[in-house]
Amino acid sequence: MSASAVPTVAGLGEVLQLFRGRPSLTRADVMHLTGLSRSTVNQRLDALLSAALVVPSGEGSPTGGRPASRFTFHHDRGVLLVADIGATGMRTALCDLRGTVLAERERAIDVAAGPDPVLTTADAMFGELLAGAGRGTAEVFGIGLDVPGPVDFDSGQVVSPPIMSGWDRYDIPGWFAGRYACPVLVDKDVNAMAFGEQRSVYPDVRQLLMIKAGTGIGAGMILGGEIYRGADGAAGDIGHIQVTVEDAGTEPVCRCGNTGCVEAYAGGWAMVRDLREAGKDVTTVDDAVALVRTGDLLAVRLARRAGRIIGHAVADSVSLINPRVVVIGGQLARIEEQLFAGIREMVYRRSLPLATRSLQIVATRLDNRSGLIGLALLLADGIFAPGRVEDLVARG
């Protein structure tokens, strides 16, 4: 049995995982990869075929006898619905069961308006996506949402979010329960972004740090190839690390209620605040980014300072978890020249050479789709986790 084979106790879930990770397999392939007997493989495969989770995919290469039938994961068996919810906008998508995005919608929202109007908008967008694909709610295998706040992953509840008024402990999965008979996954937005970047762009990197520099500042961590959420889901909240800034007067008040947080100096909302106080005509983070890109001296100076302040927190994170890649995303990543110079300066100044000798600090390659893509892949993995496949087969 090869080093990549699964244990001989492979059940339905483990066998389905083999098909999810490959274009197609024969019965003999499954026997080779698992070490299972022919009769056991036939039993596992027949159950997956009956549940339409695996389907025939043509014929294999002749081996002296008749061609061996090949089988593949039935990725069109149903659909997944995902919503990437930000502070001021939301992206939704309809995906196949591999987590591949098939269709998208985007709409402006105000997350501080509360859960009911935001989730109602998401549900309406889901309805549009299903109608456009000719699918019904009964074909939805799972729903995934990410939000710009701390999440108790096990319960799917947002906990004490600084900018999400009315969301604290709100039962998001319960809101969808009467509409869809499927699991509902909820996670922090930057966790989904980290997962999307790692799986889609850096699949061979096992340690990755994702920084979201947008309206707020947050981080998601991939450790050992998996999302690291911490004991209670609060890992990665670097935007609320307190820092000392030499050229600052009074420490600014953060949206979390504390003073002197990284986000209170370097978040997009803080840049808008400082520019407006200086008489600049800006109202949104996008306005601030556009002003930096015009070369406005004050906006450029604030962007470079933001980079150094964010870099302070990133340097501490690099020293703590030693990632191979640091990916910067969010609206402020669009001012790469100004922001990244400050981040790199602080990381290479403050972190030890061993932690930085092979470190890459790069801009997102998925841009504003990283959260959506990561959420779809995360949801697909959750729906078809080995321990859940038995239930899917039993439901047929």
List keywords for this structure.
ROK, five-stranded mixed beta sheet, Arc Repressor Mutant, subunit A, 14 helices, 396 residues, globular, alpha/beta, single chain, Nucleotidyltransferase, domain 5, 3 domains, 20% strand, 40% helix
Outline the fold blueprint:
Blueprint lengths: L11 H9 L4 E2 H8 L3 H13 L3 E6 L9 E5 L5 E7 L3 E7 L5 E8 L6 H19 L6 E8 L3 E2 L4 E2 L13 H6 L6 E5 H12 L6 E7 L3 E7 L2 E3 L33 H5 L1 H10 L7 H9 L3 H25 L3 E5 L6 H15 L2 H4 L3 E4 L6 H14 L2 H10 L1
Parallel strand pairs: 4-7, 7-10, 11-14, 14-15
Antiparallel strand pairs: 1-3, 2-3, 4-5, 5-6, 8-9, 11-12, 12-13
Helix pairs in contact: 1-14, 2-3, 6-13, 9-10, 10-11
CATH architecture of the largest domain: 2-Layer Sandwich
Cα-to-Cα separation, first versus last residue? 32 Å
Strand content: 15-25%
Order of helices and strands: HEHHEEEEEHEEEHEHEEEHHHHEHHEHH
* Shape summary: globular
User: How does the major sheet shape up?
Assistant: 5 strands, mixed
CATH topology of the largest domain: Nucleotidyltransferase, domain 5
> How many strands appear in the DSSP assignment?
15
Low-confidence stretches: 1-8, 60-64
Global structural class? alpha/beta
Number of domains: 3
Helix tally? 14
The level 1 CATH classification of the largest domain is Alpha Beta
Q: Considering DSSP H and I runs of 4 or more, what fraction of the residues is helical?
A: 40-55%
Provide mean pLDDT, rounded.
Answer: 92
CATH-assigned homologous superfamily of the largest domain: ATPase, nucleotide binding domain
Strand order of the largest sheet: 6-5-4-7-10
The radius of gyration over CA amounts to 23 Å
Pfam families: ROK (PF00480)
Protein name: ROK family transcriptional regulator
InterPro entries: ATPase_NBD, ROK, WH-like_DNA-bd_sf, WH_DNA-bd_sf
Family: Belongs to the ROK (NagC/XylR) family.
